[in-house]
Amino acid sequence: MALLWTILSVSASLLLTPCLMFLVGLMFLASMGKSLGVRRLYVKFLLKIFEYGRENIEISKRQSQIKDDYEPKGTEECKTLANGNAKPVSDSPQDPVCENSCRQDGVLVNSSHVISHDLILQPDPEQNFNGIQNDTDKAKEELQRKSSYDTIKRDFELSDCFEFVRAGVEAIIEDQVTSRFEAEELRSWNLLTRTNRRYEFISWRLTVIWMGGFLLRYCFLFPLRVTICFFGVMWLTFCTSIVGYIPEGKFKRWLNHRVSIMCFGVLSNALSAVITYHNVENRPQHGICVANHTSPIDVLVLACDNCYSLIGQRHGGFLGILQRALARASPHIWFERGEVKDRTAVTQRLKKHVSDPNNPPILIFPEGTCINNTSVMQFKKGSFEVNGAIYPVAIKYDPRFGDAFWNSSRYSMMQYLYMMMTSWAIVCDVWYLPPVIREEGESSVSFASRVKRVIAKQGGLVDLMWDGQLKRTKPKPEWKERQQEEFSKRLKVE
């Protein structure tokens, strides 16, 4: 026992100095906004590993398909050749790919779909038809609606409602809303345990690579990331406390800006984050900044490049510690989700914050909940009722290195952080878009929808009209009534 204690003490003393130097180096580079580029080289190496794995999976699938397609047909081919009804088979077998299938990332994907989605029921009946994307499609749709009078001059038939019945069945089979609160499906295996579906025992090479990756992520990266995260949170708490004691003024704002970027830069190392910022000339300096919401780390991703004030729901536990630490150095707005009166006060505080040009830009996620980074859902109108420019930001994560989506109804914050720290890395792109100003006579709802479309287009995301709170609540009764009214208009004949 004494020998073991001696070995542990000697090992700790030998590793203490390198670890301290490593943490000090991270802090120094983060304060300068610099990086050695190790994480980007690490990501490039991972891409080569993924490509090698994809090729092995594709070869394995091709071999298994050839075996399944040709071996069982041996006896049948002999019988058909004997009857003289079969064509001779070529000696060189071709790749058995169906004419209705295509190959994506080494995985065969059937291109024929049973669900057509010609009619998708939306909260706004005017947007029901999926083809409304441009002026030509709108004209076509209007033509269909005008011609419906001639086709329904006759008596009502049961088949007249089949279009809506089919749309309802399609929505049940493939729900647009529910699918946005599940992990984004990958087309190929990224060698992570929780995405290991139908890829067991492909080859001994991939097995060895998977075992090596497991040891790297859980035995080296995970302990290192936990250490960096703990140090980063303590450093953030300490630095914001120091800034909080400085009197209000220009120096405090400058120091808060530098401290914020430095501390979040250190925390980004705990996730091996590789962030690429585009169009930095549009980086917000004041006013309101809105972005699509995938995860709580969205704040970290944006705060590594700029200083923001935050608005959001009060949390306990780990997030509560961070919220209280940030509130010491700069103005933030925290509210209780279930208090309607507090929401009114939040709007007033938001207007007051924006009216002061010395305050940092306030970061808002108008969706109000986390979406799986495949879509952008309805923006709440509250932040768009404040006069002033809106600075849109689009965030797109690369799911090949780890799933950044937080399913708050399934995982706690600590479970989510554990999953993030045992992933390969967090890789994402951030686009700063030009400021958008509310047009004269434009409602806050229309303004919010216009900003949402801009973010969805830049990030390559699907623009949905549905409210993200449907994850927790039932659809509004007025949505059903509007669909019934729209259907009655189609059948009304004078």
Automatic annotation (TrEMBL):
Entries under SUPFAM superfamilies matching the protein: Glycerol-3-phosphate (1)-acyltransferase
Gene: LOC113204187
Keyword Acyltransferase: yes
Domain Phospholipid/glycerol acyltransferase: from-to ranges: 287-398
Entry's Gene Ontology BP terms: phospholipid biosynthetic process; triglyceride biosynthetic process
UniProt similarity note: Belongs to the 1-acyl-sn-glycerol-3-phosphate acyltransferase family.
An annotated GO cellular component: endoplasmic reticulum
GO molecular function, one term: glycerol-3-phosphate O-acyltransferase activity
Keywords in alphabetical order: Acyltransferase, Lipid biosynthesis, Lipid metabolism, Membrane, Phospholipid biosynthesis, Phospholipid metabolism, Transferase, Transmembrane, Transmembrane helix
Keyword Signal attached: no
Subcellular location: Membrane
Protein name (Swiss-Prot/TrEMBL): Glycerol-3-phosphate acyltransferase 3 isoform X7
PANTHER family: GLYCEROL-3-PHOSPHATE ACYLTRANSFERASE 4, ISOFORM D-RELATED, PHOSPHOLIPID ACYLTRANSFERASE
Functional pathway: Phospholipid metabolism; Lipid metabolism
Basic and acidic residues biased stretches: 475-494
Source organism, top-level taxon: Eukaryota
Region feature (Disordered): 473-494
Ranges annotated as spanning the membrane: 6-30, 201-218, 224-247, 259-277
